[in-house]
Amino acid sequence: MNTRVRSLALIAALLGLGACGIFGDKKDESLEPAKLVDIETSVTVKRIWSNKIGDDAEFLRVALRPVGDGNRLYAASRNGIVTALDPENGRQIWREKLDIELSAGPGVGEGLIVVVAADGLLIALDTANGTERWRSYIGGESLARPVIDDDLVVVQTVDNRLLAYAVFDGRERWAMQQSTPPLTMRGNAAPVAVGTNVIAGFDNGRLAAVDATSGDVQWESLLAPQTGRSDLDRLADVDGLIAVVGQDLYAAGYQGRVMSLAAESGQVLWTADISSYVGVTADWNNVYTVDENGALFALSRRTGVESWRNDSLLRRDATVPVPFNTTVVVGDFEGYLHFFSNLDGQPVARLRAGKKAVSVAPYVMANRLYVQSDAGTLTAYLIPEPRRPRRAPDIAGEEGV
């Protein structure tokens, strides 16, 4: 059994897809997804537009998530469609059919939009019109959005390689590799660029800073130590989103912990014993994550102390919470979007993006929320500003006459 098949089998087990007992049809209620209960809606969420991008990607655990450059929104589908949209109204600006299955992307920057094909091709398109600029073979599947950093495109593969290619022509600049354990989860942490380094998480539980120019490792930190006797016990992946606020870095590992580090030196600032395979997000106050059981956590960004937690989405395959306005947003396996107060974690709104799962984290640009479902549909949402009561004009009284 190869690593990819083992990873898929493990994900299925972790997500409780086989909830029936091995020796009978009786369901174990402790493995069932939490049932949704009625909530009191206190925040209005308005659907602005919806656009069908491409075919379904259900249960494939691909890393196809929309991204913007401030002016346009870019999205890609499993069946090879890459498109640029007007973020205000969803109008299609251009659409390119690549006739190849995609597994990750898009990444955007330096006038390029880059996607990764399931067969190991890194493809760069012109952001202006979708014209293909170059293709490079990376030698394996990637399940992480590529990052564009100045004159480099950096991509990570499922076999723990980090590769850099020239923006101009797609030529390989450098490559580095970490050891790969016998058993891994299906997924990769998308690299992030911080200063002169690229930060990446690996399937051996390590977080590393790599010099973007040379590919030399500047520092490493063990985020998820491998412990236990079996390969399953020793599973220690860093697969989810990595967050950066200023020079502070935040990441999480499965069967590991949430950690805050100084991006330049790798110095550990604080840790919290929370195991997560979806990673973290952050705003100025908190770091947000979902543990392996589906409990939502908000931790103080400065200290790592728990600010709040919410257990209403246990075993619902929740995405990482994404800060949006005064809320954090989570998608689930039934296509629901759950909005929680970023102050106390109380539910404030819920709506359904569609009948298919939302398995990739929602994306925020300006004051809009963009959600790509496993159905291949991209939908935009807005929290309208509350209407302020009109102020009556000042009328001078007798004393002012």
Walk me through the structure.
This protein is mainly β and 401 residues long. It has a domain at 1-32. Helix content is 3%, strand content 40%. The protein contains one helix and 33 strands. The protein has one helix at residues 3-14, and strands spanning 46-52, 63-64, 67-68, 73-76, 81-85, 92-97, 102-109, 112-117, 121-126, 132-137, 147-149, 152-156, 161-166, 172-177, 192-194, 197-201, 206-211, 217-222, 243-245, 248-252, 258-262, 268-272, 280-282, 286-290, 296-300, 306-310, 322-324, 327-331, 336-341, 347-352, 363-365, 368-372, 377-382. The strands form eight sheets. A five-stranded mixed beta sheet has the order 2-7-8-9-10, with no helix packed on it. It has a four-stranded antiparallel beta sheet with strand order 1-33-32-31, with no helix packed on it. A four-stranded antiparallel beta sheet has the order 3-4-5-6, with no helix packed on it. The chain is globular and about 55 Å long.
